[in-house]
Every structure is written in C-alpha cells, then in structure tokens.
Specification:
alpha+beta, Arc Repressor Mutant, subunit A, 4-stranded antiparallel sheet, 3-stranded antiparallel sheet, 22 helices, 13 strands, about 50% helix, about 10% strand, globular
Length: about 450
C-alpha cells in the first residue's frame, strides 16, 4: 500500500484536514497518475463546477476505462466533490476540494519549495557528503530490517544500535502481526518488497503509534514527514529551528536513516536529509525505488545470479532462494535451484515475489533489456512453485449411508449447484459424497427435505 492508497482508507474529515497543508497537496499530486494529474490541473484555477459531460469530452472513446479509473481515484481521495450547482440544474457536476484547491494554487504560484535556511559556510563545510549520507541511510535501514532475518541476528555486525531502535521495530512487527499469525511469512514478504513500500508500511505504524503516545494530530506528524520529502538531499537545516514535536519526529527519522545528524564547530546540531527521505513524497513506488536504491542483480539464463553488493542484508535475502557459490567483498554469486526455491516457498514466499525482487533490483546494465529476468528462469521458478501445489487440502464433510441411490444422485447434483462438491463414489453402498465444510449446513437441510 503506497501513500495514495493509504489516504483513501482515511475518513473524509481526516483527509480534509490534511489538505490544509500544501505539503500534503503536493505529495498527493505527485502520487496521481498522469491522467488524474491532468484533470486536477485543468480544474485548479476554475471557480465554477465542471459538468460530467464536459469531463467526459476530455478523453477519446477508446480511453473510457482509464478515464473512469482516474475519476474514481480522485473521488476516493476526496479531491473531486459533487457540486449542487450545475449548468442546467439537473446534470451532475464536480469541483475540486476547496481547501486542496487553495493550497495547491499557492504551491503552484510560489513554487511550493521548502524555505532555504541560512546555513553558515562553516556548517556547509562540515556537512556530510552524498557518499556519507548514502552509507548512513543504508546502515540505519539495515539495522531496522535485519532483525526480521533470524539468521542475521548474531552475524550481521549491526547489533550495537538495535537497542535504541527497539521501539521503532515494535511498530513494524506489530503491523505485520496484525495481518497474519505468521511473522515469518509476512516478515520475508516485507523484506523482499521495494524500499518505498517498506518505508511507508513502517511509517503508517509509526504515525498511528505517534498519535497514541503523544496525542499529536496525524496532520502534524504527516506534514513534517512530507516536508522532509521535498528537501534536497544533503541540504542541512538546524535542529534548533524545530519545535518540540518536530524534534521528536526528527530523532526517530534519524534512527531510520532518513536524516543524518551532525554537529558544527560551535556545538549546534544540524540535520541533513538522505536519499531515503525522497521516498516520503516521491510519487509512485517505481519512481521512488529508482531514486532510493541502485540496482545490483544480474540473472543469467543458466540460473546464475550475480549481485554486486556489499550489503549483508541483501546477501542474506539472496540466500533465501539461491544456493550460494561464492562471496567476495562486493559480489555475491548464487544459483537458483529447485531445492533453494522450494525452501523459500516453504517460508511463505511466492514465485512471483522472487521474480519481482530480481526484476526490481536489476543492475543498470540489464535493467533496460526485455525481459529483465530471462523468461526461462522466471518460468522455471513458477513451475517449481506449481510442483509444490499438486495436492490441495480442503476441510470437508463426508456423507454416506444414503437411504436410496436417487437421494445420493440428487444430493451430488445439489452439491455441484452450490459449488461445494469435492468427491463422490456411487459404487460404495448407496453412495458416498464429500463436500466443502462451508456447504455442510445447506446440504444437511437439503438432504432432510428430500428423504
């Protein structure tokens, strides 16, 4: 679930309050599809409602489905509201959310950028470089995600900072456990997803927990986070310029790797956004992932996987579904085998997730080829998954000792009609019939009625 999808799940009143911030309005605009963006821009400086017929005329007949999808997304975000005033008094008309329209107008007219703080020359000289920011963000993010891999708890070498991040980790574990009883299955699926999805999943739990712990409004937390997403990477700002609630959020974001703190010679504390912060307001997950993570995986038709990475987390993830053959300081070499893939499937992964991971993390030299993952490899991984699904288990109820063959035949026909039929044996006595447990009550009443 990305930022836009999450907003659609919030109550209309809450979303309306969020639109009082131009940061939220700009982030929403970034996250919309191209067609939905065009509709917003067309209506942005209109003070009168737009009728449905006019909006339908904006697209060709061949694009009706895309038009309907864009309109539904705008309605779900409370951006497109029905108007009581229409041109002929009868036809439906729409207008942009008035608060959203006002804030986005201001952002478009003024540039909507974060105000640049007066940064002394000495502070700029001490500010971390982009390489330092990237290394810090990767290390901090791995400290958060590594504990989900039990085999890395003692060998990753990153345990020194884990104690200070236990609270943040609980947010993540809590959000995963709320969706499934199996922390193992959901945990591995989380780790294989792209950085943008991981970040927003954690932040959703963080925002909810922040409201409960401090009582801070959702808008206060979210607006500060979105503001970070619009700052330039490496552009420092002073901690002293933040209020108390923002300082607490900034401290947590520093532990997540979104902000890197450093101290100037005069003792003042400054914060520099890292590349991870771009994902906060980075639009679609694909774009954010391209901004945040560099590809490093090459998959060959002989099932070999070459990963140019020194990340212990990424190496451990690759070990989940490949057989490791060689590890160098900046290179992992593995092979996709039936045993390694079926072992990953037993942990709760799917073939599509494995292929998607390899595709999303493709090295720039192979990312432009089609397909990124050779078809023979992708198809074989899916076939290995199909081999594990030959037998399907269903909770069932067995009926036997029917009073007559006619009752058995009518019961079997009824089970097929209800869609709960599983198996039958007409040769065993007066017949035996197995149906899904969900259809037991209906079948029992039917058999009683025809006896």
């Amino acid at each position: 679930m990305d930022f836009i999808s999450w907003l659609e799940t919030l109550p209309a009143d809450t979303v309306g309050k969020l639109y009082s911030s131009h940061w939220a309005c700009q982030a929403v605009l970034r996250g919309l599809t191209s067609l939905a963006k065009q509709y917003v821009i067309r209506m942005l400086f209109l003070d009168v409602p737009v009728t449905k017929s006019v909006m339908d005329s904006w697209i060709a007949q061949s694009s009706k489905s895309k038009h309907a999808t864009a309109i539904n997304r705008l309605k779900g975000l409370q951006l497109l509201l029905p108007s009581n005033v229409a041109s002929n008094g009868q036809q439906a008309a729409y207008q942009l959310h008035p608060v959203f329209r006002e804030q986005l107008r201001w952002a478009v007219s003024t540039g909507g950028k974060v105000g640049i703080d007066e940064v002394p020359a000495g502070v700029l000289q001490q500010a971390p470089s982009r390489e330092m920011l990237s290394s810090y963000a990767q290390q901090q993010w791995e400290v958060i995600t590594v504990p989900l891999l039990n085999q890395l708890k003692c060998t990753c070498g990153l345990g020194s900072s884990f104690a200070s991040l236990q609270t943040l980790m609980l947010y993540l574990v809590g959000s995963i456990c709320a969706e499934s009883r199996s922390i193992e299955e959901q945990g591995f699926q989380f780790l294989l997803s792209d950085t943008y999805s991981q970040l927003w999943r954690l932040l959703r739990a963080y925002i909810a927990s922040g409201e409960e712990r401090s009582g801070a409004p959702l808008g206060t937390i979210l607006n500060f986070l979105l503001q970070l997403g619009f700052r330039e990477v490496g552009s420092p700002f002073a901690l002293s310029g933040l209020d108390d609630s923002q300082r607490h959020i900034a401290a947590d974001m520093a532990q997540l790797g979104l902000l890197m703190p450093f101290t100037a010679k005069d003792g003042s504390v400054w914060l520099a956004p890292t590349r991870l912060a771009l994902a906060l307001a980075g639009g679609s997950s694909g774009q954010a992932q391209h901004d945040v993570t560099d590809g490093f995986v090459v998959v060959e038709t002989n099932y070999r996987v070459y990963a140019y990475t020194s990340s212990l987390l990424q190496t451990a993830l690759l070990r989940l579904f490949t057989r490791c053959e060689c590890i160098l300081p900046n290179l992992f070499v593995g092979v996709l085998t039936r045993e390694s893939v079926t072992g990953a499937l037993a942990c709760g992964l799917s073939a599509d997730q494995i292929v998607l991971y390899l595709r999303q993390h493709a090295h720039p030299h192979v990312a432009s080829r089609t397909p990124v993952v050779p078809e023979v490899v992708a198809d074989q991984v899916r076939l290995w998954q199909a081999d594990t699904m030959r037998v399907r288990h269903n909770r069932a109820v067995l009926y036997d000792d029917f009073p007559s063959a006619q009752v058995f035949q009518l019961s079997a026909q009824k089970a097929r009609t209800l869609g709960v039929w599983l198996w039958e044996d007409p040769k065993a006595g007066m017949g035996r019939l197995a149906v899904q447990e969900a259809g037991h009550d209906a079948m029992r009443e039917y058999i009683k009625s025809i006896k």
